[in-house]
Write a structure and sequence with these properties.
Blueprint lengths: L3 E2 L16 E2 L7 E3 L8 H8 L6 E8 H6 L3 H5 L8 E6 L3 H14 L3 E6 L4 H5 L10 H16 L7 E6 L8 H12 L5 E5 L21 H10 L4 E5 L5 H7 L5 E4 L1 H5 L1 H5 L2 H6 L8 H17 L4 H5 L12 H11 L5 H14 L1 H4 L3 H6 L1
Parallel strand pairs: 3-4, 3-10, 4-5, 5-6, 6-7, 7-8, 8-9, 9-10
Antiparallel strand pairs: 1-2
Helix pairs in contact: 4-6, 6-7, 13-16, 15-16
The structure holds flavin mononucleotide.
Amino acid sequence: MAVKSTACALAPSQGLTYPHPMTLPAPNQRLSIAPMMDCTDRHFRYLVRLMTRHALLYTEMVTANALVRGRDPQRFIAYADVEHPVALQLGGADPALMAEAAAKGAAAGYDEINLNIGCPSDRVSAGRFGACLMAEPKLVAEMVHAINARLAAHSRPIPVTVKTRIGIDHQDSEAFLDDFVGAVSAAGCATFIIHARKAWLSGLSPKENREIPPLIYARAYKLKRDFPQFTIAINGGIKDLGAAAEHLNHVDGVMIGRAAYDAPYALLAQADVQLFGDTHTVLTEAEIALAYLEYAGRELAQGVKLHAVTRHAMGLFTGRPGARVWRRALAEVNGNPEPAEALKGLRALVTRNVNDLTLNLREELAA
Ligand SMILES: Cc1cc2nc3c(=O)[nH]c(=O)nc-3n(C[C@H](O)[C@H](O)[C@H](O)COP(=O)(O)O)c2cc1C
């Protein structure tokens, strides 16, 4: 991997200078699946990989503290080889601790370290990380610098990227975002994922903060125009590949969260063809269900609760005949004292109803 040294065109407004920041190219950001707590764990990421080879996958946010000082860091960091390219998202505000956590991510083989500077949850703000750090670009730059310095010594250095918003509270001007990006990039970050709405740090729940502040895509487009040398990906409210393709006329990448979780097949089955020009064979929903249930069986044998795996497949048949039957069958797995039997039942359900449950995508494409 080529290591690029970029002297930032904009001097950091906060008085810090990093004369030779290490800026590594990030994995292809053209399409990525957003980090989502309780959703994008390794099981869901495995499911997504059955549909797209190219989308970049993000972990749920892991706090640096949990990785470095927690009792079971493996729980947060484990992933399957097939998940590559896969990025580890970290939350924290202590540069040394973040560097330590990033080193663990690099050692585990992750392709990118992403900093969460966009999450507005109270718990996160109280710990002084997430979106509230938009007001502290100097600290974010210090984290990027500390991580880069630590990873430079690593046998396989990996890039640091930042996921953030267009602003917080009343600090939501174009100049505010430009200053933030200018300061952070000077420490060696050349990739920014912009959730194109601001966050209100008090008064709104995290869920409301994903819905109420208006999406202003033009702000992310403007950021790309202001910083053409950086990779800018856009996030927020993107519901289908057509919308993704439209955004790609303005920015370098599109990150999709809820739409990918709620209806992964509807969203992703065509992603490699439409966004990456890769015409590999696309499995049908039923083929994917069977492959995922195989995986679930292997995880079950390793002591993982069946429901922890199968809960992520609720949206697999969204929009297809049989979707409700499938969801009901999956819901019944929860608490079933005989998971091996439940798994057999799910396999039988898919096999029995294969014609109702799926539309063969290949036939559809050939028509
Ligand atoms: C259930 C849930 C959990 C989330 N957890 C995280 C997280 O851990 N880190 C993060 O940066 N964003 C998190 N987000 C925000 C998403 O990454 C994304 O920015 C947001 O949902 C907007 O994108 P979308 O409209 O495509 O869903 C979460 C969103 C949801 C719905």
